[in-house]
Amino acid sequence: MKALLKKFFLHFHIILLFILIANTVCFYIDNSEFYFKLFLLFSCYESFVTAITFKMSYDQQQPFVLPYLIALYLFSWYFLLCMWHSNPAVLCIFIAFPFGTYTIFSRKIVLLWCLAIITSIIITIVIPADIFSKPYPLVNVNYVNLRILTCFMLFFGFIFFYNNKINKSNVHRPATENLEVYNEAENRTSDIYKVLYQQITLYFENKTPWKNPDFSIQDLAIKLNTNTTYISRAVNYSSGMNFKTFVNKYRIDYIKNELLSDHVKKRYSLFYIYTSAGFRHQSTFNKAFKQIESMTPSEYIALISKKNVSISET
What we know:
elongated
């Protein structure tokens, strides 16, 4: 999976660099100095990124993927602000962001991308034309549309190809590289899930990834060199919980242990404890606690306080 994702990122940069250079040449031919300089600048930046990506492993690339996409998004948005009054068709470029990220990010991140894109399109349309709009030389409209369509089809064709390839890898790939028994017989499936579940619990106990509020099933799949389908099935088969509840169970157990410690209770607030366990908001924490423990955090604190008083009186 990591090798495939590394190849995906490298080929993504190569395709994007080709599109940028091709448009830079076209803007030069069209005598559009502003757009020529804009694309030349980003082509140089993309050349540097492509060279770095070629040398880096996927694990080294991973922390920089989201910041890079944000930089690419800001460049695209500025270009659209300048260009869309001349040709509104360029707004379709924004669609590439959520479509291209849903295989490598969690659904939450993809939904945030969708929200950002919708907001950007609305702002782009609302902003008066004379603020960002830059005049574009009068050239054949069909020629410009053909350029936009060609870039659009090339980019989306590439994304569609790799999305399909990654999805097929998720379906046909054994849960881990050392589970050769996967293809032997269907009655061994439970053993595979048990082994994978042991790897998951070992990783959770040693690395405590659940303390990160942004930790997702995609992150775990990459760390264990497997895919989200097998992780979800392994967790459900062995624990009877979905992945979200499974993660929250670790967080709640951690919080319960912290609340049982007199030193922690006296020194830290409940807010500090549940945020250090990976919860961002109190409402989310309260809901998860109630679901797992069948009581609210306040009721649990009152219960352990009552027990401590009873013990001290005996």
